[in-house]
Write a structure and sequence with these properties.
With 575 residues, the chain is an alpha/beta fold.
């Protein structure tokens, strides 16, 4: 049995574009067998639900967003996507306008409708609705575009029967069979698939068949590895499970464990895993103590117009993004009150209802604005502990925690040292960090967006691009200090990949003959200020610098600390 072809669908769409969208209502009324009555009192119940049923059966096309899944096939707005409110708004308005002009409908109350005798002539004579000699052949191609048919004539007959066009003078006056428009020779042996239909209609093509879960995870991990992102396998698994469960994934951990690095690498990892740049949308929101719901969602100005935020514009108001993976990175999640600025999103995750963005001014110019959260909205937040930083971070409420998967980003550097030994761990992790720094600088040079200082950075990194390129005595000093810190609970809490990376890059940027002194300088300018532990632990690490350039500054600072804290007592960060 044959099917309509792509050329026949394209030709029919060009014909349908000249019709009024009021035809959707009429066809739904015919299909619902709304009668022709002599008196208004004999009208029957009919409403938007009937039109929604028709739209759902014949106007739902692949590639449109869930919030607006119907394709407008008729009229100058052909190609527009509309939602389930379309009948209750646009089509209802058209029905009421047709009623007010007379001759077509009886409409005795809000629910009941019927056709008036002779409505066929009224439709044909009303220039506004242009319902004279409409091609049934073109309509049958649209309605039966993927349905098996016997012939063009058979499809036309089926359409007339399904929609009851044999009433009165409909066929011949308002509709014509127009079978000669199409040839049976142009029919095809296989139905148009969803991809072909989407391409013909200009809608976003349906998502390609995704990789298997195992393939997806392998590509995901590989991309993170190529970005030189250090991340624990168990954390990745938990993150993906959290996203599949439509929960907010919150990464917590000590500064320098890589929370932000991981979060910002996720969009590219998803693009690689899905093998499509267009399949992923990414938005980063930098949370500050001033962030509120208007900064997150947008606001309504004094005129009543809605001013969208980047988040709302990309996720809630851009229909073509509704079927994409939307990664939202919330940096420093708890610098502001999460319940306050994220409340609409939390509610939408729970209820899956649209988010009200603006009540509007009541005018047609500034209508009420709503938006739907895409199904695959993947929120990843970075969060520092309220316990460790009570002055700048806020605690998470129970309702927020309930909607979150909270994952602790462990100190991967400490884990690697415990597993592989400090020399191998520093060599492998340090090498990846230097290579990442070098690739970033060289990329800016390659595309012509480098600064003058990037040339100095590039020179130093090319001369020392691996951990082994450092002098033996420099490596031994770094490892001795690292070993001292990582041997204590306090040290394992703060001596993270981020701290190690900062020290390593600073040492590499220093001329080779001054790198021992650079290690001492980093001890004074960084390590002491992020350390929290016993004074004895700090002195044990500093002892490796005795007799080396720069130790005088270390000794002076430690003496100052000793005067502030009792020997063996707990040392707090100086700043």
């Amino acid at each position: 049995m044959p099917y309509f072809s792509a050329n026949q669908l394209t030709d029919s769409l060009s014909v349908l574009k000249g019709l009024n969208t009021f035809l959707i209502s009429l066809l739904a009324m015919f299909k619902a067998n709304v009668p022709t009555t002599e008196h208004a009192a004999d009208a029957v119940n009919y409403g938007a639900q009937n039109e929604n049923a028709l739209l759902s059966q014949y106007f739902r096309v692949p590639g449109l967003p869930p919030m607006a899944p119907y394709f407008v096939a008729f009229g100058p707005n052909q190609g527009q996507s509309v939602d389930t409110r379309y009948p209750g708004r646009t089509l209802q308005r058209l029905r009421k306008e047709a009623f007010s002009e007379g001759g077509i409908f009886w409409h005795p109350d809000a629910k009941r409708w019927s056709f008036r005798p002779g409505f066929q002539g009224a439709l044909a004579e009303n220039a506004r609705f242009q319902l004279r000699e409409v091609s049934i052949a073109a309509l049958s191609v649209w309605f039966y575009r993927q349905k098996e048919i016997a012939s063009v004539a058979a499809a036309v007959d089926a359409f007339i029967e399904e929609f009851g066009l044999d009433r009165g003078r409909l066929v011949g006056l308002n509709f014509v069979r127009d079978v000669n428009r199409l040839s049976d020779q142009d029919l095809r042996d296989e139905p148009l698939d969803d991809v072909e239909v989407a391409e013909l209609l200009g809608t976003a093509p349906p998502a390609v068949e995704p990789p298997t879960r195992a393939e997806f995870e392998a590509r995901f991990r590989l991309e993170l590895s190529e970005q030189k992102v250090e991340v624990d396998e168990a954390l990745l698994q938990a993150l993906l499970v959290g996203w599949l469960s439509r929960e907010i994934v919150v990464l917590v951990g000590a500064p320098g464990t890589g929370k932000s690095t991981i979060a910002h690498a996720l969009p590219d990892a998803l693009r690689s895993a899905l093998q499509s740049d267009d399949a992923v949308v990414a938005v980063t929101v930098q949370i500050t103590s001033e962030t509120d719901v208007s900064a997150m969602m947008g606001y309504q100005n004094l005129e009543g117009a809605f001013v969208a935020s980047e988040f709302s514009e990309a996720l809630l108001l851009t229909h073509e993004n509704q079927l994409k993976a939307c990664v939202v990175v919330l940096d420093e999640f708890n610098l502001a009150n999460v319940d306050a600025y994220l409340a609409p999103v939390l509610a939408a995750i729970e209820s899956r209802q649209e988010i009200s963005l603006s009540s509007g001014s009541g005018s047609a110019q500034y209508p009420r604005v709503t938006g739907a959260l895409p199904i695959d909205t993947f929120v990843v937040a970075t969060c520092n502990s309220f316990v460790e930083e009570p002055d700048t971070r806020l605690p998470l409420s129970r309702p927020v925690k309930r909607r979150c998967t909270i994952l602790t980003v462990s100190n991967i550097l400490a884990d690697a040292v415990a597993r592989d030994g400090i020399q191998r761990a520093f060599s492998e992790i340090g090498g990846r960090q230097l290579l990442r720094e070098l690739e970033e600088v060289d990329e800016r040079l390659d595309v012509g967006s480098a600064t003058s200082f990037d040339r100095y950075r590039s020179q130093m990194l090319h001369a020392c691009s691996t951990y082994e390129d450092l002098a033996v005595e420099v490596r031994e000093l770094l490892e001795a200090i690292g070993r001292s810190f990582l041997a204590t609970p306090a040290g394992r809490r703060f001596f993270t990949i981020g701290v190690f990376r900062d020290i390593l890059v600073s040492v590499v940027m220093t001329p080779a003959e001054k790198r021992i002194a650079a290690v001492a300088q980093q001890f004074v300018s960084k390590l002491v200020h992020v350390y929290s532990g016993s004074i004895d632990g700090l002195r044990a690490a500093a002892d490796h610098l005795k007799g080396k350039p720069g130790y005088d500054a270390v000794d002076e600072l430690l003496s100052e600390i000793s005067q502030r804290f009792d020997a063996g007592g707990e040392v707090l960060p100086l700043l």
